[in-house]
Amino acid sequence: MPLFQRPPLDTLTSAKDRWTPIYLEHGRIEVDDAAIKWIDSKGKTCPIPVATVSALILGPGTTVTHAAIKAAAQCNCPIFWLGEDGLRFYAFGITPNHDNSMARIHAEAWAAPRKRNEVARRMFRHRFPDVPTSGVSIEQLRGMEGKRVKRIYEDLGKHYGVTWKGRNYSPSNWNMADNINRALSAATASHYALIAAVCCSMGFIPQLGFVHKAGTLPFIYDAADLYKHETSWPAAFEAISIDPKDDGKLVRKILKRNVEQSRMLQRAPKELKALFDDLSTLQEPKPHPLQPKSEA
């Protein structure tokens, strides 16, 4: 007799209606009394409603039993492993999805150069709707994006009264970064976990990116970039304006508030899916004089 009874598929909560991820460290996750529970380092226990949580984020000092992993997978609840202070995104556990249609659409768009570039342009238009993208190469759009991102950082620094000297940190030397760069890294790590939960639950393929190519999760980085300016970046600057020595707790608290206020979890599934709509009806674009033929 299994401890945890798999819930019927039609009773599982969809990604857009799930709670924000739960971050855990220094404790153990196991199944007991037909439910998943968390036992912290002091022996206190707390039930985890995996059927309604968008993801479990495991920090340092966390152990999890085989039965708990099985139960989380049966409830479509992704599990992620993050480094200390939320700086590094190490890995995630693949969540069984009941439909492979989104994965096939994703793969077909990525494999066709014109469709791949159109999805990338739609991602840019999502962030910068006032910028014309027709006939502009992906490299040119990346340059335009870089300038706009720098301007957003500067504006957030002025708005929250935080000294901003540029994005500068070393993943191998966390303590060398200044407070705002550490806060941005902490907020970004949690933001990646949240977006990864949405993408995996919908059946997207994390390894096939359209703007990002490097790393193990380029599509997660693509999708996360659509929302950073309204969630993780403001959370980091606001947290440092309140407590310059914040260790990440305040950043994550404000990030949670921003995610809820922006309704990102409700919007992301529909907006990500829309990036792939009607790709088969693409018209031949008028090439920009500087556009490489390989990107037409």
TrEMBL record:
It is an enzyme of class 3 (hydrolase). GO terms for molecular function: endonuclease activity. Its EC number is 3.1.-.-. Mn(2+) binds at residues 145, 212, 225. It holds the Pfam family Cas_Cas1. InterPro entries: Cas1, CRISPR-assoc_Cas1, CRISPR-assoc_Cas1_C, CRISPR-assoc_Cas1_ECOLI, CRISPR-assoc_Cas1_N. It comes from the Bacteria. Its cofactor is Mg(2+); Mn(2+). Keywords: Antiviral defense, DNA-binding, Endonuclease, Hydrolase, Magnesium, Manganese, Metal-binding, Nuclease. Belongs to the CRISPR-associated endonuclease Cas1 family. Homodimer, forms a heterotetramer with a Cas2 homodimer. CRISPR (clustered regularly interspaced short palindromic repeat), is an adaptive immune system that provides protection against mobile genetic elements (viruses, transposable elements and conjugative plasmids). CRISPR clusters contain spacers, sequences complementary to antecedent mobile elements, and target invading nucleic acids. CRISPR clusters are transcribed and processed into CRISPR RNA (crRNA). Acts as a dsDNA endonuclease. Involved in the integration of spacer DNA into the CRISPR cassette. This is CRISPR-associated endonuclease Cas1. It comes from Coraliomargarita algicola. The lineage of its organism: Bacteria, Pseudomonadati, Verrucomicrobiota, Opitutia, Puniceicoccales.
